[in-house]
TrEMBL record, chains A, B:
This is Transcriptional regulator, ArsR family. One of its GO terms (molecular function) is DNA binding. It comes from the Bacteria. Residues 25-120 form the HTH arsR-type domain. It holds the Pfam family HTH_5. The keyword Transcription applies.
Length: 126, 126
DNA sequence: TCGTTAAATTGCAATAATACTATAAATATA
DNA sequence: TATATTTATAGTATTATTGCAATTTAACGA
């Protein structure tokens, strides 16, 4: 009976973990970089960032209609980018203006630059 | 009756789309870059790539044990990196050797470099 | 105050991703 | 041939992501 209980416990413990990224076994840098990359790794969010960058001034929600996505969907993507710290928004009357967060952008450039540059492209053994 | 059928059709059509990224409304570049980023945007895969890069020679499955993940999980991550074209593998006896695919790495550097550099960090309006 | 406009949130449905165990496949060695 | 070793795959469970309609919230203007 005790063994049965123990086995059940193990099963529950195992299935609690399933489907969840084990971030605790990786370094803070690895987790941080992957979080930033994940925020950018979507065509809609890349498109949004490109729009924000191209229009020198902040973009004020003209995104809806320009991209072929519903307002709710774009709002969600913006939220994700904001949560990752990649963009920041200011309320401007009825609308909200978004622009790049320079600090996070710089961090991304540094972290990713370092990572990409660490491969020198010398060993082509396979 | 006809209206009912039509509504059902619309519902089916809509729910076919749900949960699926609408890649057709984005440019090939946006889709390609996001696919590459998605492949890298996981701490385990970042760790795997770092290991491959650090050990100048190709890595032959020493990854299992070094990372705190099960063999099957690592194999799956390697598969995803291979599918994205970021790494390539050669069968070496019993084991398999992996190394960076220089072409894809260069592509990633170019695409991502261009994207990141497009922001000059001048306009801080919000 | 009431309507308008813009953005965020909620709720829902479906697919994708993550991780594991167990098993299969392939190659080397005794 | 039999066994050991290494990697891949199948199956399963769970969480995450994506997208939309509908609603709510917030601010402006008549």
């Amino acid at each position: 009976m005790i063994i049965l209980h123990f086995q059940l416990y193990i099963v529950i413990l195992r299935y609690k973990i399933m489907g969840l990224t084990k971030s605790e076994i990786f370094t803070d840098e690895q987790n941080q970089l992957s979080a930033l990359l994940k925020a950018i790794a979507h065509p809609a969010r890349i498109a949004i960032l490109q729009r924000i960058i191209i229009s020198n001034t902040c973009i004020c929600g003209d995104l809806v209609g320009e991209l072929g996505l519903a307002q709710a969907t774009i709002s969600q993507h913006l939220k994700e980018l904001k949560l990752a710290g990649i963009i920041q928004g200011t309320i401007e009357g009825v609308s909200v203006c978004y622009c790049i967060n320079p600090k996070t952008w710089k961090l991304l450039e540094e972290q990713l630059g370092g990572f990409l540059a660490s491969y020198k492209g010398e060993t082509t053994c396979c």
